[in-house]
Amino acid sequence: MAIVLCNEGTCIPPKCPIVDVQADKVIIGEKNNVCTLTRKQFDILKEKIKRGEI
Q1: What is the DSSP letter of 38?
Q2: Residues 6+ apart with CB under 8 A from 39
Q3: Beta bridge partners of residue 3, listed in sequence order
Q4: What is the phi/psi pair of residue 34, to 5°?
Q5: How far apart are CA 5 and CA 45, in angstroms?
Q6: Burial status of residue 17 (CB atoms within 10 A of its CB: 0-12, 13-18, 19 or more)
Q7: Can you point out the beta strands (E) in the chain?
Q8: Strand, coil or helix: 53
Q9: From CA 53, how far away is CA 29, in angstroms rounded?
Q10: What's the gap between Cα 5 and its chain centre?
């Protein structure tokens, strides 16, 4: 599942950041500027966001 993080008119589509959730990893970022997390790392990030730590 890939989610594009742009609102209409806020950026150029090829440069929109994405969150690409795969079975074993999650890729976050733009074309040549990405961060790859394991699913476990992503789950930790998600929980920190939900708790307001980030």
Answers
A1: E
A2: 23, 24, 25, 26
A3: 19
A4: -125, 160
A5: 17
A6: middle
A7: 2-4, 18-21, 25-30, 33-38
A8: coil
A9: 21
A10: 8
17 closest CA partner among 9, 35, 29, 26 = 29
CA 2 to chain centre: 8
Partners of residue 38 on adjacent β-strands = 25
Model pLDDT for residues 11-53, shown as the tens digit of each residue? 766 678 899 999 999 999 988 899 999 999 999 999 999 999 9
Enumerate the β-bridge partners of residue 19. 3, 28
- Predicted TM-score (pTM) of this structure: 0.76
| Sign of torsion over alpha carbons 44, 26, 1, 53 | positive
Query: What CA–CA distance (Å, rounded) separates 1 from 18?
Result: 10
Identity of the amino acid at 3: I
